[in-house]
Amino acid sequence: MCGRYTLTKSKETLIEQFLIDEFPEEFDRSFNVAPSQSVLALAGINNKRRAGYLKWGLIPHWVKEGKQWRPIINARAEKLEEKASFRGLVEKKRIILLADGFYEWGMHEGKKQPFRFIAKNQSLFAFAALWDKNGGQSTCTIITTGANEEVSSIHDRMPVIFLGEDQISKWLSEEPYENVKSLLKPLPDDEMTIYPVSSMVNSPKNNNESCIEKIALS
User: Fold this and answer.
1) Closest listed residue to residue 180, CA positions, set 195, 170, 192, 189
2) Which of 14, 29, 52, 188 has minimal CB crowding within 10 Å?
């Protein structure tokens, strides 16, 4: 799964790398993005790339006001066409979330230990995602796939990650889902690296550069 991630690069870097045409005036880097927070997403609209904020945790448009509903932070790639929450979104509501790392928790000496996964070249990347609007609120979910070998030592799932512009462009296009679903696969092992970080990332209240600093494990 993916329940915490980072976006630490500057606004200028984001605009340049993702070829963004419209970007929100307000932007803050985050070292510990968590569910229920507003997250930076990118959509292809009228041949333009528009960035904006959505709430992380999907609430489908058909959920009635007042109904108890647990927001969906992750969507399994292999279930997108089966689940009612997602199958109506895969054609017209594909987006990406901008990131440069994500956290997962493994075990070390009998205790949970957080690790950060990043691209081997430390570059930005994109999570494949879907969005919907319920009432006046727009929400989103990150698509996950089976873990590659690097991640599987910690967790059996990982977010679908796009490193290349060709992947991003195709996912954001109006191509039928049938033509783009092959993109939903694990990132190759040789394009990722992992390192342990402080347990301070356990709390979303902690959001500073210390969250991403590498620590030594005893």
Assistant:
1) 170
2) 188
Question: pLDDT tens across 9-31, in order?
Answer: 999 999 999 999 999 999 999 99
Q: Is 140 a residue of the active site? A: no
The count of domains in the chain is: 1
pLDDT of 68 reads 86
Assign residue 19 the CATH number of its domain.
3.90.1680.10
Q: Is residue 200 part of a domain?
A: no
Residues of the chain with pLDDT under 50: none
Cβ neighbours of 48 (radius 10 Å): 11
Residue 132 CA neighbour count, 13 Å, CB half: 22
User: 158: burial class by Cβ within 10 Å (0-12, 13-18, 19+)?
Assistant: buried
Q: Is the dihedral of CA 28, 32, 36, 39 positive or negative?
A: positive
Considering only CA atoms, which of 38, 35, 39, 37 is closest in space to residue 3? Answer: 35
Q: Is residue 49 part of a domain?
A: yes
Predicted TM-score (pTM) of the model is 0.97
pLDDT of 57 reads: 98
Decide if 216 is inside a domain: no
26 catalytic, yes or no? Answer: no
Active-site residue, selected from the candidate residues 2, 140, 150, 211: 2
